[in-house]
Amino acid sequence: MKTKSIIAALAVLAATAASAATARMNVVSESPNRDTGKPYTPVSLNIVTPIGLPWGFNWDVKGFQVGIYNQVQDFSGLQIGFFNVTGYCEGLQIGGVNVTEKMYGVQIGFFNVINDNDVPFLPLINWYF
Questions:
Q1: Extents of the domains making up the chain
Q2: Which of 60, 82, 102, 107 could pair with 40 in a Cys bridge, judged by C-beta atoms 3.0 to 4.6 Å apart?
């Protein structure tokens, strides 16, 4: 029974890794510290987005987010997870796979992608200011 659960968990992680690596999100605005008009939360706790608190995709996070798979359009603060996907990130991402369209900050992980960077992929650490 444990073996089947472990295999199922690994399959889910592999599928989310593939989607995180290919994720490209539309960025609402070019400037940092912008107001997108969406509600935001200071803390987000996820298993796999949208399963967590708060529920759903219609949230920006300004503060702290932790989970296995984190996906948010606009993020400011500290994001920790196995897979972190954002459209715009301002702050620090720590995870196995970090993917963002635009960033003002640092990514720490095994696979780090900032699409709007001169060097979009770097292992271990990536940054853009």
A1: 2-128
A2: 60
